[in-house]
Batch of 3 targets.
Target 1
Amino acid sequence: MREVAIVAAGMTPFGELWDMSLRRLFAEAALEVVKKAGVDHLDSIYVGNMSGGCFVGQEHLGPLMADQIGMAGVPSTRVESACASGGIALRTAFFEVASGASDLVLASGVEKMNDGADATNVLATAADQELEVYHGITFPGLYAMIARAHMAAHGTTEEDMSWVSVKNHRHGALNPKAQFPLEFTLEQVMNSTPVAEPLRLLHCSPVSDGAAAVLLCPLDQAKKYTDQPIKILGTGQATSAMALADRKDPTFLDSVQLSAERAYTMAGVRPGDIDVAEVHDCFAIAEICCIEALGLIEKGQAAGAAAAGLTALGGRIPVNTSGGLKSKGHPVGATGIAQAIEIFEQLRGEAGKRQVQGARLGLAQNMGGSGASSVVHILERT
Amino acid sequence: MPSPRYWREVPSRLRLEAARCSSCGKVNYPPRPICPGCRGEKSEPTTLSKTAKIITSTVIHIAPDDFLFEAPYAIAIVETPEGARFMSQVVDCDPSSIGPGTDVSLEFRLIRKEARSGILCYGFKAVPTASWEG
């Protein structure tokens, strides 16, 4: 396989973007990439999107989006894997370049969640309709079940989870693209409205509109498009049982561990080598489960990591410097690409006030459903 | 919900019909063509007991449209003595009084009403037989 680099990134702000349609969001992010890289063509496009069909009644996003940026004729494919759609679009684009089939591939993600659809119902399509949703479960409800099991088995507390939100909002307050760039106190998080016990509103990522895109090319051609290409050193993907009830241990996200092992092996690095990480904190408990499954924090220490400052900017392994899904926003199909963009900027030294000094290796982990899909990318400064 | 979709699930959802894998003994609920534990293709039909224990649970405050008027309600993953685990609402109790370890009985109940087709959808709900200590 050829070595592959990311050479340019583009992203809309995340938020309730009432003046932006699904197609307009995509076009803004994609055209930013095309202009930054100075390319006059693309060989292929991947569009990560969870549910254009349910959110705005629009499927067949491949050709729609290619056409919107004046690239009709180019192969363009929509990739769906619930909230991991963006990360898996990136992985798919990686393989197309690595295989030698294409040189210039756009990996993108887009979601328009604030156009009138009932987001709770649409997001629940990522759970098992017959065995879970039928009985009235919601997505926060599934993660609440993971949280309550985690509390019973490992002594994790509501305060532990609340520190994750406090920490990610502190980071997000430094991110001009974040949907909620503001800080919250521990008390505010712990007194926010209950959504699904023990999860409260400020333990949950918001409903967001947004798009993100990156351009991939072979590493040996990357200098044509940028002085500072970032190499994709490893990629790993895994699945788990779809229904939470069908997993041996509801507190353990086995797909996250498996996808990480595959990415670490491919990259030839260990968890301790990672300088900065973006992980899928759709709910506060998810960050706790993910940093442990990724090996970024020792077993048993993940719950208290945010409170202890281990995962904050300036800590041992800064996690979600972008503000994470919690503060930056979570337009589901775009999230995986936006995570990769945060790592891309960190490794290029472009993260401004969020910069992790001297970051050389970064990791992005994107998850779908209650953990039935996970995809991990490891990026390296060249 | 189109009626064939509801009708297909009747054996497992309304009669608790499951399958015990002939190779590894795992009880799969609902039955599948292949055992997810060992990929065995042979199984014996079995019916689940109507008792179970809560593995984990939550109380839904922000509910989907179809359950809007029931919130807040408790919902749990329960495990029967056969080892089958599945999702079930927990009713006839204070929702905050149940949690991991609570013993429940499974009772035949109305689960949801489908607004468009008018189908009444049934299944099992859990009723606590002892309160939660957690």
Target 2
Amino acid sequence: MSMANLSNKSDSSTSYVILVAGCSHDIAGVLSTVFSNNGWETHTAIEAEQVGKVYFETKPDCVVLGSLWHETEDWIDIRDYAHSESVPIIFIDDSNSSEYRIRGFNFGANDVLGMPLIPEEVAVRVQRQLEIRTRFQEATLIDTLFGVYKRKYFFIEAERQLGDLRRTRDPFTVVVFELDRFRELNETYGYKEGIRAIRDLGRFINGRIRNTDVLIHAEDEKFILILPRTYTANAVPLIQRLQQEFSAELADAVNGTYSRSFSAGLLEVVDSDWKPGNCLDMAVKALEKAKAEGSNATHVFSLAQDQEQGWRRKLNVAVIDDDELIRNLLESRLQDLGGQQLDLNVKCFVDGEDFFGNAWHKQPGQFLVLLDRNMPRMNGMEVLRKLRLHYDRSRYLVMMLTVVNTEASISQAIESGADDYMTKPFSLIELESRIMRLIKGKRR
Amino acid sequence: MNNSLIIVLWAGLTLLSVLTLIFIYLFIKKTISNRYEMRKKKLLEDYHKSDSVLERYLRTGHMERRMVLGSAVEYEAMQEYFVKRIQVVNEEEHQRIQLFFQQHLVDHYRKRLSSRRYNQRISSLLYIERFNLRELLPDLENLLSKKIGDVEKYAVLRVMAGLQSERIIEIMMDPTQNLPDYVCRQLLYPLNMNLMERFIAGFDQCPPSLQDNLLDILRIRNERSLAFLQMLELLVNSEREELRIRAIKALASFGYASKQGLQRIEESLDHWDAKSWQEKLMLTKLMGSIKSGPFLEKLQELISDRSFMIRSEAAASILLYKDGVQILRKIEASHEDRFAQDIAKEMLKRGIS
């Protein structure tokens, strides 16, 4: 599974993967034929150690176990992994003895198939187990092997956070992180160490985050962390501290200790119009960049640098001013504001009535209103009061731009809900940086 | 012998009495001045009290009889108090202070303006400006017609400008006045836009130094009016280079040009080779502030200009375009000129934080 399509991976895979383990060659052959006839991908392994390796490489949806297993530690581990992921284990009873069947069920079998193997029966019984597993998978949100949320919970939580962002305008941060050199670790110390490392990392992070933060196991050695109401500027030091502490904790191995590390990609979610999938993709991109820098690295996704089409932040900008020169000036100037980060939809209105009379002001999305004060029909203060009284405050940012510069009138406007106030004549550079600050929120 | 002794004695006695007289004079003068200072200090202390007559006036606007001034020390103390107090007042209080000065102190300052003592004239100028005593404008003009030095003349002009005197326009447009640049700017800066528009209307009749300074001050003050814009668009093609450069700079800061104005500049793009690097630099800046397709093309050409300043400004201007980052990246990666690549790289590094 490549990293980039982490967000597209489906939970209920249409093609199942079956692991045939510990069977003699002829039985394995029969089973493989049955499964591949059903369109299922089949892998075979005989020795316990090999079975474990194949299990973690292929992630089977069902394990079919022949009589070559024993109640040894290696087999018990495989059984535990399978159970923790609700992967069914089907035993093949080639001796047709009740004693073996009882032993099998005691060990943790979900079903036992007796001899002779009838292809149709094998297929239907495995199918049944797979269906139960799928239903169970769909119903649970916790990854029992690692004790944290499963990947699909990300989409639920991210939607919730996006809703929160829409209301409060407080951005949140998505961190995607993964163990460094996981493949190398597996090859050097064995898959069990690999599993242990993932579990350690999950526990390590889980024990050090706020209880409002959400940790999710994405897949394999990859995790997602959602930090609500957190700017990346604050998240980066946190992640870097965790990286430091994690790599300082040494893991035991047969021949001494070794250190592990993880890399992280961060994304500050600032636009409530983004989809959870977009967010995940952007964070994964940042992680790829971090990995390219080496291990134990962090990278923050930045819209300016990692720009891709369709990820621009959209904003409707209304210029309400009776001075035609100012309208033309702002309309032409603001189009290019923010470069590729912003997609500004600028529209001009001659006064308040013109603005409220146009359905444009009701379209979905975020608004920035640049408001003159003295206008013929409906003046700036009336527009401001109406916006604050009848419209969602967080969707309409209002900046007053006017010649009225007495302190009483400025304080009156601020009290009535203006987000910023600038007096004319104004400097364009100052105006543009104030607008950028308003759009970006309270960060700076 | 006796005679000479007597002469010495007399001389000594005369000297002693002169010295005694001087001593007595100085002593009395010091005592008077001490009493004056004491009195002033006492008055200031009284004024500072929260229920003093002046503070009550500032709060209520009600003038009590006790506020009517008699002695010189009262004038001085009050004016000193208000000069400090006016820095920490709200609008209402500000107006009340002004009203008080207009009602009670105009005559006082009028007298001082016609005083023969330089100090008195100069110090009253400060208060006239601070308390906006427009009633004294004729007296100021009168003072100008007298024989006064340049320092005093400029001070009077500054006060007149602060009081928005229309006479200032005539004076400044008079080429024989030969006002230095710094005075010109000091006079222009406080003028309101109505007066400024009068300069704009009569721009052709202004002396060159006034023209240059007018453009600068309007730019610094971020003024934007239609008349100003139209003037700038015409001046971009002025005969005088200095004026062209300042007009282009002002237009860049204005941030907008009409369709015709924009077209005129775009048409001039082909005749750039004859221009000085200073003018080219300003035009490069302008093309980042006011955006158009032909400008962007020209900027991409200018990024390999011989002058570092122009290359650098061109890169900065490109960065202001919507897809400026991408264009600079392309230049950095594949432009045939290494200098262009370098400047694109540097600007990308500096521009994106």
Target 3
Amino acid sequence: MAELKLTGVSKIYGGGIEVLKDINLDIQQGELVVFVGPSGCGKSTLLRMIAGLETISDGTLEIDGVRVNDMPPSQRGIAMVFQSYALYPHMTVRENMAFALKIAGKSKAEINASIETAARTLQLEPYLDRLPKALSGGQRQRVAIGRSIVREPKVFLFDEPLSNLDASLRVATRIEIAQLKEQMPDSTMVYVTHDQVEAMTLASRIVVLNNKGISQVGTPLELYKTPKNEFVACFIGSPAMNLLAGKITGTGETTTVQLDGGGVATSNVPTLDSDQGAHVNIGVRPEDLYATEPNANGASLYSGEVSFTEALGEVTLLYMDNNGEALTAKFIGIHMGLRGNTVALSAAPDNVHLFQEGLSMLHRAQRS
Amino acid sequence: MSGIAGQRSSLAWVVNLSVVFLVLLWLFPTVGLLISSLRTADQISNSGWWSALSTQESQRSPVRIGGDEQDTDSGVAITGTLFDLDGVDISAWGTSSRRPNEFAPGDTAELKDGQTLSVQADGTYQFTAPESQEGKRLPRVFSTATTPPEFTLDNYNTMLFGGGSSSISKAFLNTFTVTIPATIIPILFAAFAAYALAWMEFPGRAILIAVVVALLVVPLQLALIPLLKFHNAIGIGKGYMGVWLAHTGFGLPLAIYLLRNYMVGLPRDIIENARVDGANEFRIFTRIVLPLSFPALASFAIFQFLWTWNDLLVARVFLIDSTGQTTVMTNHIVELLGTRGGNWEILATAAFVSIAVPLVVFFAMQKYLVRGLLAGSMK
Amino acid sequence: MSPILQAVLVITLGVGLSVGYFWLSNLILDNVLFPAKGINAGRNINLANAVRPWLFLFPAFAAMGLYLAYPVFETLRLSLIDRDKADAFVGLANYRQMMDEPKFWEALKNNFLWLLVVPAASTLMGLLIAQLTDRLRWGNIAKALIFMPMAISFVGASVIWKLVYDARPEGTEQIGVLNALYTFFTSNSPEVWLTVPFWNNFLLMIVLIWIQTGFAMVILSAALRGIPEETIEAAVVDGAGPLRIFFRIKMPQITSTIIVVWTTITITVLKVFDIVFAMTNGQWQTQVLANYMFDKLFRANDWGVGSAAAMVIMLLVLPILIWNVVSARRELR
């Protein structure tokens, strides 16, 4: 079980196309780190570089303090679970699991013992002598995981392992993976997904990748509560955080922002006197908005017409419009008949984020 | 579109009938050869093969009567039947080629020296003579008769087991001798190369693939003289070794092309997983790629088998020498066409024996053949 | 040694040697030259992986180089020298000699006739049958039967068709279907069809069309199946009839396949030898290039002119070769 350290890692494909640039990351033993990001952000490439399936163009990758840039995959002590499971179709489940162990020169008894243990953990015992094509999607996924467990790797790598499963099975398997992680508290896992629910539920830390680099690293709640920049703010949480443009009119421990759309927002993010008059974006999550009466000076955060609603049962989504400035709000419960009405909204100062030029002003305050 | 409502069924009839017509048109020539190979030389040359299927009236080839003599009051008698067939109906007969229809069935013909001959409609005859005919030529009977369809395997018997100059048994074995190694050897070479071209990274890969595509269409006519010279220079001259090597060389581009196209389609994840599992390239190839490529291997094997079995040119140039000991089926048939061009019972049988093996392979493994064709031409 | 024994030996040796070669060379590469151990493990593994492809490629490419690539250049050289003058370079003399022969022009003319007729006829017939059998319940059986001639050798097919074209003297019963029909319907005397100049070319072509139609049909049939069902259903909903669907919806979607089929048959036509050799051997003005070349090489023993004729075939194939390479490269990208 191991630590993973990436220093200045870059990936440039032939032809000069740069996919990843200067990635620095420390992964501690026992962590489950999830890479998320929009498609094409290089999260799978980064995982494959850790696996040794892609060469590292620049920088170093260390596993347990040993530089492994030039090591072939099999010697890095990693195991990988592929999106397509990548089971060998002409081998039975048992043979699939035994393949790597045989190559490693393990004895028959050792191989059988490991397979039995893994099969018991994953409830695969009845299927050991079947071919992969005789298994369901979920079972195949478990075989793929079992095949990585028997190798007792230092690092487990998961490449979007749930995206080929249907919705209900995905939830079940997600819980299984979480339980598996609990059974193996010392194992290090790296997990790539584009599904933020998977990221939020499984991760001990999330790495958000965007624009060739790391946008933010943190626990799921850190990312939710204190996103470092607009990208992370909008990427984590669904529906995405609302961003409204405005100008700072009051600074200090709390900040007042006069919004371009006419509203006024108060945030608990501290600002300096020099920020007076600065153009900023405020960020408010749809679930943090509540309906309010426009007060005497007309200073609600936002006021607009409900152009469309979606009733999901436990919540209702309101799509609002104020002279072209759109906003989404999420109200608990069922709210019928709001469409076409004008509604004023506010948010608690704790829940109003401030971004200047895309970066969080809270983090700026912490930096300085 | 069978599920679409309101379609006219008359169109379906037209389609069905035209396909029936086309299929019959396509089968007709082959069936003709097959039926001809099951008829006797006389039947083939006297009537079209299509008439062999029905009862028909035709002039039969002359039959010389013969058999044991029995003593009777007035000399000797011979009885027998003209044809070894049921359902014959003779309408007229005679004893000379000038007047083959002189007598009606049941008539008694007066021959020279007091001999008599009578033939019944069913082909039985009675011959009488005043004295023993021992050592003399008995008369021939010409007849016109209606006979039911009749087929015989005699031609096959003669051609396969009869010996003689037109026997094809040797050519048959020789063809197998050429075909089997010429099918197996290129597969191995090609499989390794195809794997490298499909799954290994190295500079110049794209160029090598282009080279394979180019060699795919190089006419092998160009290779004849240079390679014959080469074979003579290295001392293998004309013979099996030469033809095996030649077929291997000529088959490789298609083999590599087919196999590479197939292997490229194997899931990348599986091969990468094997790499993560610690398998080296040799093991990935033998344990993962080769078993998974079985359909492509089978397609190519069928192609190469059909091609080498049916080949005439390569065998003539690289194998067959003046001794004639190493002839193959195709060449044997061409020679029969030259020397026995009119003997359809020989030609048809030889041709059908040579066709039979590929046809069996064809119908048994059509799935793989079609798959290979598609992989080879649809990109 | 009996040939069969020799064949078994060659199979065992060939398989054994090639497997041995691959196994041993890999073993040496991984364990002796660049062992994956010690301080240089990583570097050695990368080195071994750089060398390995060439180990895999070597036998096949050596064989292809020797048996296909080298002969192209050697034939070119042979076509420019004269064997009777101690291999002296004679420039284009062989080509000039060839061009002075009427038989060459006859062969060239016939070859173009073949090129014009056979690919077109086979592709069209194949397309027709593919479309007709597409929705037929017994379509697969029909296709298998029409596809069957693909398995038959050109020589075997020649015998089959020679029987069709067979002629018997007037007054006796005709055993060839063609003459039987001809005498039955026209009451003319039977023709020895294969000796009727010009038209006999078409009789030979029919043999190849008979064989190649199955090939075209199989591939075009798969292409028709590959057309997204939705596009056809959309056309049906739009009110298009079967003919319009075929020409306006299906045909445009399989154009590239039609081209591939056409060129593949074109190459087969350029190389056609066995059929002419077995049926007429180029007599009665049915000569084609491949047979002409064979004649020059092995009967007249004139390597110069024979090689020149081979180069002409190569020249005719060249545009297709270039087109294939270009489109293959486009796909790789």
